[in-house]
Inverse folding.
């Protein structure tokens, strides 16, 4: 008996260990249900015992967002895994939330298909990816989880199981709850199953890269590509702390088409770009490592150069090795700072970046940071419609059971 | 409170409200004359008619907010209306409510091709966005067949699709921001020009909510670069099975056409009668396949598509030589709904979705349904994504035909559900399909959806009676509704 003498509050949970702490907050219990029914029973038990719950996928990014205010039970989705259905002819798949994205990719590849989501961190689960709406370079062509999710099964805090959407790509019956769940950081309910639309794997892929002479040059290249007919799947900028800026165009399609567009892309970038069949270093990865500060910057497309310039300026002004990388094709950049930076310094840099993002019509959100930094800064910045969001949370989770305090405005 | 005294109360309430709204909008933009009100008694689904108590025409978001605030204060329901082309009775007025028409909010506020965005007022007509953006080399991708008249606000509310949504996605994938008037009368922005606004994706929940979560007063849409090349072919087959097999082969080959549309023999007959599109004679089915994008990609894939059509039994393939010929191919398809009016005095336009691979089975079953009910059914559909538009033909003057047509139309929806599809792919639930929702969703599913309604509109004032067959009670909202819930008192809601 592994937990001899310990009295469990109800069946299906075991005591948590120190390793189960989330963002420094220790947990009391862990449950790893293997089905939607088991998970619903666990959540009813949690409700009966008034336990707060944090859902854990692979746990790759549990230090994202704010730490939960209180943590009684970790609901681990590891055993809620597996591909339920892959209807290749209909280009859809039904998959359990705990399935690693890489397992799903392996299951779809033999049919020449993919879930067209980049996985910035290896190991991430389907549910975690949907819950934080992570995305990578190819969002320019395929959109993000919000665009690819066509159905979901969710368990509410009161244990009620609900299905939203369906298994067909086109469907406008009722509200699109999938969109609401996407990016909700596990604060509305437990997602147990997802239905996605799929895309064919491209027959050919190429990357055309060129080093820019500076922010203006990078901006010129990006604008030239956007206004052209090369239809990129990705348009990335990567501004390293050493001052170098690289612009990369990612192209996908039939071999004849990609070959023709590589030629055009080279002309658009000018100079002597490199062409490769494999992605450059750092592709689809955030420009920071474990324990560092990660900031997501968004803005209107034409303001991407201004966001880059703000990053470069903040680097000089605050004397920090700030890196900026991301999608100039969609206006979503990521800035990384070493976790060793003083909280005051990070706060100063964040203020500058947030001001630039606001001018660009977007936002600067701290996605991860060491505790001292998290305590010092406003992670989310201004949030439109916050009062409506609070009302949504109150309706879905009136007891405040799911990850209290983790989300915007302390939701 | 009884239903009769409710009505008596609301008559006085409406009088007071009308006076209030005239101070906000002026007298000429508040209509209360019975005869004039009748103009607005229905949308594109004319079988449902309700004369509203008042119709108003705001010019600005602020006026719209003031109207809703006044409605909220008076406890009077309101319904938004764009161009009134909806096919599910979504804009059907409320007899004791205010119809808020956006037809005088038609300014394109900004075109920003460098941001790939346009900012428009809700009454702007879909096609106007594309017309305005074309000189800069851009267009607005969602293209409902009604695009010459339907409004962007209506598109947002219905999450409208179009033939080219197979490749480009639906309205929800092309709207990055809205300003809305909440049912409390507050102006709130959701999303904007940049993607991924922090917090819950309320924008995603609002799009497709059919006017039940508030009124969109400004919409930021994506503009898409006009494609370098467009190639269109029209392929004629002996049977819908063969055309379906060709569709599967195209998708199976990894091609994502901009559109694949199918029409069966009866639909072709109607289109010929109406617009003389001159489709190949003797075809049991035609496919219109359109590819767009970079020239070299399109050329390579177009060759593959042509071959796959032939391999699957196409007896004639026409390739559009120019824009004029392409327009002719599309003319038959885009006018198909109205065209059946040429071959039948009355018809029902159905909208359902099935997994595309079930197409041959489902079409056979639709044939059986037609025979069983003694009606003719023409099929027009977005074959690429399995969105069917069966047109059930009948003669209202003939005894019992209308009822049989209605029954056949309902049986088709059952078929869609049986095959794991949806009761609506683009026309919405509205008032027409609310009763079908419990067949597609469980009580718990519907209850969970309505949590969103309760968050936005706990009093159920924004387009009540649509989408959900039974409104959910929203629980205590602090400071409001002591005692029984007003909906419960009025006998229109039950406790879940
Ligand atoms: C011939 C024909 C062809 C059609 N083809 C297609 C097609 O290919 N694809 C497709 O998807 N649909 C199609 N439709 C249906 C219809 O055109 C669409 O649903 C369209 O989006 C409705 O726009 P509207 O401006 O006419 O809205 P209305 O009919 O006026 O209203 C529709 C709904 O939107 C709500 N609404 C309107 N404005 C607002 C606003 N500003 N804020 C909040 N809610 C609002 C209304 O309350 C109502 O619930 C077709 C209709 C016809 C008649």
């Amino acid at each position: 008996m592994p937990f001899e003498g310990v009295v469990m509050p109800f069946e299906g949970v075991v005591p948590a260990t120190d390793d189960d702490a989330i963002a420094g907050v220790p947990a009391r219990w862990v449950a790893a249900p293997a089905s939607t029914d088991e998970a619903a029973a666990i959540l009813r038990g949690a409700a009966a015992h008034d336990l707060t719950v944090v859902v854990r996928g692979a746990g790759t990014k549990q230090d994202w967002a704010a730490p939960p205010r209180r943590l009684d039970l970790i609901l681990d989705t590891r055993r809620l895994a597996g591909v339920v259905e892959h209807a290749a002819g209909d280009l859809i798949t039904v998959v359990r939330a705990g399935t690693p994205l890489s397992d799903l990719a392996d299951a779809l590849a033999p049919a020449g298909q993919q879930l067209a989501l980049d996985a910035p961190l290896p190991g991430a689960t389907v549910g975690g990816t949907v819950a934080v709406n992570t995305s990578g370079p190819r969002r320019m062509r395929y959109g993000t989880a919000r665009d690819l999710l066509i159905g979901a099964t969710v368990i509410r805090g009161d244990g009620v199981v609900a299905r939203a959407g369906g298994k067909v790509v086109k469907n406008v019956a009722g509200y699109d709850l999938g969109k609401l769940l996407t990016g909700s950081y596990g604060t509305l309910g437990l997602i147990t199953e997802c239905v996605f639309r799929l895309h064919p794997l491209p027959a050919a892929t190429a990357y055309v890269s060129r080093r820019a002479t500076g922010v203006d040059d990078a901006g010129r290249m990006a604008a030239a590509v956007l206004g052209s007919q090369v239809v990129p799947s990705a348009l990335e900028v990567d501004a390293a702390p050493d001052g170098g800026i690289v612009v990369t165009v990612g192209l996908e399609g039939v071999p004849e088409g990609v070959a023709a567009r590589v030629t055009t892309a080279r002309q658009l970038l000018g100079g002597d770009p490199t062409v490769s069949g494999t992605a450059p270093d750092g592709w689809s990865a955030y420009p920071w490592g474990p324990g560092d500060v990660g900031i997501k910057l968004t803005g209107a497309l034409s303001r991407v150069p201004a966001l880059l310039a703000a990053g470069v300026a903040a680097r000089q002004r605050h004397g920090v090795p700030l890196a900026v990388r991301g999608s100039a094709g969609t206006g979503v950049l990521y800035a990384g700072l070493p976790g060793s930076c003083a909280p005051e310094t990070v706060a100063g840099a964040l203020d500058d970046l947030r001001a630039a993002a606001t001018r660009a019509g977007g936002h600067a959100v701290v996605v991860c940071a060491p505790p001292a930094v998290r305590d010092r800064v406003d992670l989310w910045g201004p949030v439109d419609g916050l009062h409506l969001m609070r009302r949504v949370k109150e309706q879905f989770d009136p007891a405040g059971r799911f990850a209290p305090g983790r989300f915007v405005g302390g939701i | 409170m009884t239903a009769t005294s409710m009505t008596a109360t609301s008559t006085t309430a409406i009088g007071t409200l009308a006076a209030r709204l005239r101070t906000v909008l002026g007298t000429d933009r508040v209509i209360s004359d019975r005869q004039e009100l009748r103009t607005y008694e229905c949308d594109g689904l004319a079988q449902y008619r309700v004369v509203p108590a008042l119709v108003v025409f705001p010019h600005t978001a602020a006026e719209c907010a003031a109207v809703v605030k006044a409605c909220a204060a008076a406890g009077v329901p309101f319904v938004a209306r764009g161009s009134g082309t909806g096919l599910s009775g979504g804009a059907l007025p409320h007899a004791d409510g205010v119809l808020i028409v956006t037809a005088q909010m038609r300014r394109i506020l900004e075109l920003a091709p460098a941001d790939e965005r346009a900012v428009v007022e809700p009454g702007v007509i879909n096609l106007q966005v594309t017309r305005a953006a074309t000189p800069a080399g851009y267009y607005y991708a969602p293209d409902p067949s009604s695009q010459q008249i339907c409004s962007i606000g209506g598109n947002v509310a219905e999450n409208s699709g179009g033939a080219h949504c197979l490749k480009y996605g639906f309205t929800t994938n092309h709207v990055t921001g809205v300003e809305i008037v909440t049912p409390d009368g507050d102006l709130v922005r959701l999303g904007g020009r940049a993607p991924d606004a922090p917090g819950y994706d309320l924008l995603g929940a609002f799009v497709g909510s059919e006017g039940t979560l508030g009124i969109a007063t400004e919409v930021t849409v994506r503009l898409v670069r006009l494609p370098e090349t467009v190639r269109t072919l029209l392929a004629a087959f002996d049977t819908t099975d063969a055309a379906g097999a060709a569709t599967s082969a195209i998708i199976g080959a990894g091609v994502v056409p901009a559109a694949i549309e199918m029409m069966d023999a009866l639909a072709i007959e109607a289109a010929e009668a109406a617009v003389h599109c001159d489709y190949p004679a003797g075809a049991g089915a035609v496919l219109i396949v359109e590819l767009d994008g970079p020239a070299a990609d399109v050329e390579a894939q177009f060759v593959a598509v042509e071959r796959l059509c032939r391999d699957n039994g196409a007896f004639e393939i026409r390739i559009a030589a120019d824009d004029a010929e392409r327009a002719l191919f599309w003319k038959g398809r885009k006018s198909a709904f109205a065209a059946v009016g040429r071959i039948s005095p009355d018809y029902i336009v159905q909208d359902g979705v099935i997994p595309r691979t079930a197409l041959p089975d489902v079409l056979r079953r639709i044939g059986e349904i037609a025979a069983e009910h003694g009606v003719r059914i023409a099929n027009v559909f977005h074959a690429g994504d399995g969105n069917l538009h069966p047109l059930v033909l009948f003669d209202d003057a003939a005894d019992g035909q209308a009822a049989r047509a209605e029954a056949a139309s309902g049986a088709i929806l059952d078929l869609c559900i049986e095959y794991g599809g949806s009761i609506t792919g683009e026309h919405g639930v509205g008032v027409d399909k609310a009763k079908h929702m419990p067949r597609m969703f469980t009580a718990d599913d519907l209850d969970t959806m309505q949590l969103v309604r309760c968050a936005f509109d706990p009093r159920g004032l924004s387009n009540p009676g649509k989408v959900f067959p039974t409104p959910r009670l929203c629980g205590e909202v602090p400071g409001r509704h002591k005692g029984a819930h007003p909906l419960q008192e009025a006998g229109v809601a039950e406790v879940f």
